[in-house]
Each structure stands twice: as structure tokens, then as C-alpha cells.
Amino acid sequence: MKRRAFVAAAFLWLTPADADGDAPKHFHTPAHCDTDGGSHVDLPPGYFYDEAQKKAADVEMKRLQDAETRLRAENTSLRKSADPLPIGWKTLVAGLSAGVVGGFVAGLVYARK
Fold this sequence. Notes:
Layout: H1 2-14, E1 25-27, E2 31-34, E3 40-43, E4 46-48, H2 51-81, H3 89-112
Antiparallel strand pairs: 1-4, 2-3
């Protein structure tokens, strides 16, 4: 945890403040930091967030995950309630088969009269 805090502090020390304050810092080349305490940190190229930006990103990620979970549940419920054939395909096939057989039998009975 100390290393993480040190890297965040070194990062903030290395980079100037942004005007908007929300954008992550982007290093196009590796960076090196020496602190007053004599510690050395090498940072690879990439994007870096300070602690406040990381916390805000985590809160937003959790909010989006909760919203996605809620929307999936609502969509599942809506699809079940809007099903055009709530009786199911087996019931439909059984009813049609019974109608065809019943019609065939009725045709044979009335044909003999």
C-alpha cells in the first residue's frame, strides 16, 4: 500500500495540474522520479490516475454495473410478459394434432352416413 501511495504522490509531483482536473495523465515515454527522501520510481508509458480520479472511476463503474444489472432484469421481465405465445409450443402442437385427428375422425363418421 505504501508503494501505491508513493507512486501516486510521485505521479502528482511529476505532472502539472490539468485545467479540467478529470483527464488521466498520459506519459508517452517512460518516466523517472526521485523524491526528497531518496526513493526512485520508474513509470512505464501509459495513462495514470491520481487517487481522487481512481475513486471517482470506481464509483462510476459500480453505478454502471448496477444499472446494467437492473436493466437486464427489467428486459427479462418485459420479454416474459410480452411473449406472443404464452401457452408454449408443445401445447400448440398438441392442440393442432388433436384438431387434425378429430377432423379426420369426424370426416370418416359423416362420410359413412
